[in-house]
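Researcher: Structure prediction, please.
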Amino acid sequence: MEKIWKDLRAALKKRVAAHSYRMWIEPLGLERSETGEWVIICPNAFSRKRVQEHFGETIRGELARIRGEEVKVDFQVAGRRSPRGAEMEGGGAQLPLPSEAVRPHNGRFLRRDFTFEHFVVGANNDFAYSASLSLASRKSGTQPAVFLYSGTGLGKSHLSQAIGHHVLNHSPRERVYYMTAEDFSNEMVQAFRRDALDQFKAKYRSRCDVLLLEDVHGLGGKERTQVELAATLDSLLESGKRILFSSICRPSEIPRLHESLRSRFSCSLITAIDPPNHRTRLRILQHKARLHGYEIPAEVFDYLASELVGDIRQLESGLNGVAARSSLLGIPIDLRLAENVVRQMISGRRRITLELIKKLVCEHYRVSEEELVSPSRRQQLVRPRQMAIFLARRFTDTPLQAIGRSFNRYHATVIHSIQAIEKGIKTDPALRQQVEFFQGRLESPPPATLH
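Model: Predicted structure follows.
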């Protein structure tokens, strides 16, 4: 068996591009089932799909050549093999996918890679990291609650889930609840409809040790939820429990929030996460490459860190795009390849400005820019204004305060506009199509009339 696997690997190494071989073939294993069937062991489901689709016939052909006979080959995921007594060569335990998750005691799953060990610390987030780790470790003198705020894609969810992982690893008996503010609100509404509000209250006030509550800016205007959450927080804090809040803005900037709840948020240790600088972006890329087993030249790392200045998701998307294109096309990763990937990612993005968005929205809704930023609250102006503000937030790096100034609106109105569109997208197909239309216009080279 060992010799067959060695010969098969040697044959595949000659037929598969070096980068693809390292990425997809090296992690595989070979075993023989009780029925005599040959089984290729893949580290995870994604690997199985990719290997089967792109290298399956090559593997079958080479194995048949080595054996001198037709063979039947099956592709399976490590740890999920049905044959008993099978003997595995060249492989070990299943390698977890980043998307595979850990189940807390209540709420959403925790991503396996969202741990403190995989969080890259830089000048932009060092205090947020320290505050979160301190909360998770329950160090003496630690604030019982931490409030993280930042733009999207900068690491709030990573730190929140890292706290959950840390607590579950070090104190498995502690009950960790991880959810969004919308999850909490929906669960409360369902409990009210089922006449089970007492059970809902008892669950959060008596059976929760660590509450990780994301997107609390979405609580604005939800009167009953705010009242219940405030009472729940009082109960948890009085019992010495730990709480993490996350939001896109400070507690003082959340619109239509009860002062009692705002006060409770404000009593937390409040810390921001800023966009990473070039050095931190470079370290993030290097860390992600090690995590995925990518071999990337130094000049490609530097190029990606210089060009992809949006958020961490954009960095990871660029890195994965470079590795995937190299693997699928069988070409080496170099600066030219990286330039092609980045060009496709940000084509048109650099030209997206607040002025461009205003012009595009005004064209579509047939209103003037003066009307768009005017104090008027006429219905035919409210939706275009909300849409423009939403697009400004999604497609530019402009801070919320600056967006507000550009539209002559208060910070709270800006957040309300963003939430109105986000909520409408979920329930209104027509609005969702409008957003997709604008997204298509903005992400492709703009027509000459928009310059």
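Model: Residues 45-67 form the longest helix (23 residues).
Researcher: Thanks, that helps.
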